[in-house]
Design a protein that fits this description.
Strand order of the largest sheet: 1-2
Number of helices: 20
Shape: globular
Strand content: under 5%
Distance between the termini: 16 Å
Order of helices and strands: HHHHHHHHHHHHHEEHHHHHHH
Number of domains: 3
Radius of gyration: 21 Å
CATH architecture of the largest domain: Alpha Horseshoe
Helix content: over 70%
Low-confidence stretches: none
Length: 393
């Protein structure tokens, strides 16, 4: 249950609004609520309803738990929509009896899903994914020619966003089905970059099954099949695969392969600007973040590498929230292993501020929080509150 008072909630809304350089009127318009409602909430005279909270959080581009500490609204909503996502893809190869949307409108809505995925806005994805999965499949079945290729790309992208929800919240069977749908749709695009992106996402199924050696083999096959890195998009596609291969090689305890793939990712990343390519972030900063991920994946003997990276570099605000929070979670794990619980707690707090639901659902964040709490048995109330929020007690 939420633990924040109305005054605390109002202060948080006002603070986040100001950091976004928004007026109260602008927030009211973006959240589709009245100006009087925003004013009442900010001065603590009124607590937002669940729907109003979601609308304000979306307008501010934060998770609701940024505003109400301890809120489980996002988690409960995600789980509530999982059956609808599952039902939407049950008959992916059978045209639904609904009229197709214009591709331009569908593309805009699918692009919004991608933005929410990169910002770790899982509740909003879960709410809209069932309808957009159905609409994307309908478009694929009704379109021909170039429009059909476009519709296949939209379906692959929608399946990826829905998979982010299923995977992060532990619905791994559903995640595997969505990954299969994404791969099927990517094949329909006749686009090797889309197929490389599907191979990148497929790695989640190997992480979930702890089949790391098999996942590495699958990624190396995908790298061989990916287009030559002769432009930004193709370079990013291959570089992202190398980046992912380095991490899973670390989980497979194959340090030689991890170092090789990380070096290739670094080489490719240095040739293009940091950006989102086909829904995947790649570039020099993303490779730096993965240096920490690879070091932590390789285990305790490699933690100094993770600590050294963090000494000289931290993710810029321009990096997607999910990837930034992942960096801080992995750093916290390294700091726990290094016997630095205070630093680990600070990293976890940054991860929570960056992407609350990603942090809350991440098993490594939960493990790190539990260890810090155990090492600091009589510590401050804030640590106890954090471990209760993340479910580590």
């Amino acid at each position: 249950m939420p633990t924040s008072t109305a005054i605390e909630v109002g202060r948080r809304v006002a603070t986040i609004r100001r950091t976004r350089r928004m007026t109260q009127a602008a927030l009211a318009r973006a959240a589709f609520v009245s100006l009087a409602t925003i004013k009442a909430i900010e001065r603590g005279a009124r607590s937002p309803s669940d729907d109003t909270l979601d609308s304000i959080a979306a307008a501010l581009a934060v998770d609701p738990s940024h505003i109400i500490t301890g809120s489980t609204r996002t988690s409960s909503r995600v789980h509530a929509f999982v059956p609808a996502i599952s039902a939407a893809i049950a008959a992916y190869d059978i045209p639904a009896d609904v009229p197709p949307l214009p591709l331009r409108q569908l593309a805009a809505e699918v692009a919004q899903l991608t933005e929410w995925r990169l910002a770790a806005q899982y509740a909003r994805i879960a709410e809209h994914a069932p309808r957009l999965l159905t609409r994307s499949m309908t478009a694929l079945h009704h379109c021909t020619g170039a429009d059909r290729l476009h519709a296949a790309q939209l379906l692959a992208t929608t399946a990826r966003s829905a998979d982010a929800v299923a995977y992060k919240f532990g619905h791994w069977d559903l995640s595997a089905r969505l990954v299969d749908l994404m791969r099927w749709a990517a094949d329909q695009t006749e686009d090797r970059i889309a197929q490389a992106t599907a191979a990148y996402v497929r790695t989640e199924t190997f992480f979930a099954a702890r089949a790391h050696a098999q996942g590495l083999a699958a990624l190396e096959r995908a790298i061989d099949a990916s287009p030559s890195p002769i432009g930004r998009e193709t370079t990013a596609a291959r570089g992202a695969l190398h980046m992912r291969a380095a991490v899973i090689a670390g989980r497979a305890d194959d340090s030689e392969a991890a170092e090789h793939h990380l070096a290739e990712a670094r080489r490719l990343g240095d040739t293009i600007p940091e950006a989102d390519y086909d829904g995947t972030r790649f570039g020099p900063d993303s490779v730096r973040a993965h240096e920490v991920s690879v070091a932590v994946s390789l285990g305790r003997d490699h933690i100094q590498t993770a600590l050294d990276v963090a000494e000289e570099w931290t993710p810029p605000d321009s990096m997607p929230a999910e990837r930034r929070s992942g960096f801080w979670i992995e750093l916290a794990r390294a700091q726990v292993w290094a016997g630095r619980p205070d630093d680990a707690f600070e990293s976890l707090k940054v991860a929570r501020f960056t992407a609350p639901q990603h942090t809350r659902e991440h098993p490594w964040a939960r493990d790190a929080a539990a260890t810090v709490r155990r090492l600091k048995r009589a510590d401050a109330e804030s640590l106890t509150a954090f471990t209760e929020w993340i479910g580590a007690v």
